[in-house]
Amino acid sequence: MDHKLIGLRIAERRKSLRMSQQDLATKMLTSRSTISQQELGNNQVTVVDLQKFVKVLKAPLAYFMGEIDLDEVVDADLRAESGTDEGWTARAVTNLYRQQLMEVFDELPINFQIVAVGIVKSLATLVRTKPLTTEPSTPE
Known about the structure:
Blueprint lengths: L2 H14 L4 H8 L3 H9 L6 H10 L4 H4 L5 H13 L5 H19 L3 H20 L11
Helix pairs in contact: 1-3, 2-3
């Protein structure tokens, strides 16, 4: 994980929510100094902390990993507030599975976590470049 990037993303999202470091620290049950060091990239953000940031800052993991930008997160916030966001049920189910997956992931040794993150990034890249179809492929 790129801790500098994650730290920058934490600070960016916190500021977009007009939240102070102390406010965030209180919600994360940690100190303001820990939040400051994480935002600067000086302290590693653990997988458990990252999961908390996802919940507290209401932003998807993809945002913290640098895969989507803040404007996409803010757009989703606005759609949710206005009630024009379709597919919320599917996302709620996906979030439940994601939470269960993160609980299992947290129990893995760190070297397995690193490999798993690499695999997920590779799959995400593949899906972006080659859209999935619902029809089975036929041999040529």
